[in-house]
Design brief:
The structure holds two protein chains of two kinds.
Chain A lengths: L1 E9 L2 H14 L1 E5 L2 E7 L4 E7 L4 E7 L8 E9 L4 H13 L3 E13 L2 E8 L3 E10 L5 H17 L7 H24 L5
Antiparallel strand pairs in A: 1-6, 1-9, 2-7, 3-4, 3-7, 4-5, 5-6, 7-8, 8-9
Chain B lengths: L2 H9 L14 H8 L20 H17 L4 H13 L13 H11 L1 H7 L6 H13 L9 H9 L1 H13 L25 H16 L4 H11 L4
Helix pairs in contact in B: 1-10, 2-4, 3-4, 3-9, 3-11, 4-7, 4-9, 5-7, 7-8, 7-9, 10-11
Classes of the chains: A alpha+beta, B mainly alpha.
């Protein structure tokens, strides 16, 4: 199981535009990578069915921890056919995960700078944001993980982006989940249309 | 809309004035965030993704919010204009010249006022319902065809009606013929011409996003974010 060191930042449209300009000038442009994601927020894990709409591929991913529970994510994933995405979602929903399911389209553009992969994104819930990622081998040492976090922090600082703390991430995702729960309850209680 | 139509729209971009930097009031941003309109509001659910579906509804609501700023509408009138713009086409039976769809939507809005205002987190008051329903009813009637009753109704909700009609007209850049594109002669809105660039970009960005795979709501919200409106 590979280990991803992931750190995130949210920012305004102005900061987004400055970041993209900088990454196009100084980084490696890996191109657009839009995704339609069905994600299941489980108590200690995150399950995702991802349709990579730009790449015309799809995958199922299980992450060993939730956002806001540390930067290291043990990850297992396998490819599926894009045509099988609806069936995969149907299976997970039928297994009882439907109430934990959220759906989001991510407009995404990937870059690499100093061995850090940077996905610059927009989604309805997060607005403009970026994910900074370093992929480590199985069983990477604590020192290697700390080094990866330091590298990401250095790159983000050089780009003028403030990374979110684990507490900020936990608060943000908790607020999102609460708002989604309220939205679903409101939808169920909505009066019939006349 | 398909890739060829979007390319045609892009290729035919008129010489438009540069975007005026417009800032929406917080209330309008909040209302646009509620703009993910339920499919069940549409009389025919097949039209939800069509030319008069949710993307047109949300762009029209956003343009109404911008026009509300341009015309210094107060908070109550701005909210009423945004809400009316969001639902103005939801009772269409088809995408062609559907006579009377404004009147049908006005009746539908009055019948479902609690649900619609509640969706936007607002309280439905008799005055707001009458104003919104009036704007919705008159949106598909040309000014020159107004009857005496139409003129009387218009006088009771003049600014809101004018904003909704102008917002609807500004979103005509989505239509695949140049002669159908926005024409200031058919509206009563001084700010109409300076908002053409914004209206054009909202169509292009949101329709491209929709074709990239985003849902209708996400596609328009992305366009609003790209234009700094939310």
């Amino acid at each position: 199981m590979a280990v991803e060191i992931e750190m995130r930042a949210r920012f305004t449209k102005e900061v987004h535009d400055q970041l993209v300009t900088r990454l196009k000038a100084d980084g490696e442009d890996l191109g657009p990578d839009d995704k339609h994601i069905y994600f299941y927020v489980l108590p200690d894990q995150l399950l995702k069915v991802t349709n990579n709409t730009t790449a015309s591929t799809a995958k199922i991913t299980l992450k060993g921890s939730k956002i806001g529970q540390g930067a290291a994510f043990a990850e297992t994933e396998f490819a599926i056919a894009p045509a099988d995405v609806p069936a995969a979602v149907k299976v997970f929903n039928a297994l009882g995960f439907e109430t934990a399911m959220h759906e989001a389209f991510n407009f995404r553009h990937n870059f690499r700078l100093d061995d850090v992969e940077i996905a610059v994104k927009w989604s309805e819930a997060w607005g403009y944001h970026a994910e900074f990622e370093v992929l480590l081998e199985d069983g990477a040492s604590d020192a290697a993980r700390a080094e990866a976090e330091a590298k990401i922090t250095d790159v983000a600082t050089a780009l003028g982006v403030s990374l979110m703390t684990e507490q900020e991430l936990a608060d943000f995702t908790a607020a999102f989940e609460a708002a989604e729960k309220e939205r679903k309850e409101r939808k169920q209680q909505a009066a019939p249309i006349r | 809309m398909d890739h060829a139509t979007i390319a045609w729209i892009s290729d035919n971009r008129p010489d438009l004035p540069p975007d005026t930097r417009l800032v929406l009031r917080p209330q309008s941003k909040e209302l646009l965030a509620h703009g993910g309109l339920p499919t069940r509001w549409w009389a025919d659910s097949r039209l939800y993704t069509s030319l008069h579906g949710v993307r047109h509804a949300m762009r029209t609501a956003a343009l109404a919010a911008v026009l509300a700023e341009a015309n210094d509408l107060d908070d109550a009138d701005a909210a009423t204009a945004i809400l009316a713009a969001a639902v103005h086409d939801c009772q269409r039976c088809h995408d062609q010249d559907d006579r009377g769809h404004g009147a049908r939507a006005a009746i539908w809005l009055a019948a479902n006022a609690g649900t619609v205002w509640g969706h936007f987190g607002l309280a439905a008051t008799p005055r707001r319902i009458v104003q919104a329903a009036t704007a919705v009813r008159l949106h598909d009637i040309p000014y020159e065809a107004f009857t005496a009753d139409d003129k009387s109704d218009h006088a009771r909700a003049e600014h809101i009606t004018d904003v909704v009609k102008a917002a609807d007209a500004l979103d005509r850049y989505r239509l695949p013929k140049l002669k159908w594109w926005p024409d200031a002669r058919y509206v009563r809105e001084p700010a109409f011409d300076r908002l053409r660039g914004l209206a054009f970009d909202l169509v292009l960005v949101s329709e491209r996003a929709y074709l990239a795979g985003a849902g209708g709501t996400a596609a328009v919200r992305y366009a609003l974010a790209e234009k700094g409106l939310v």
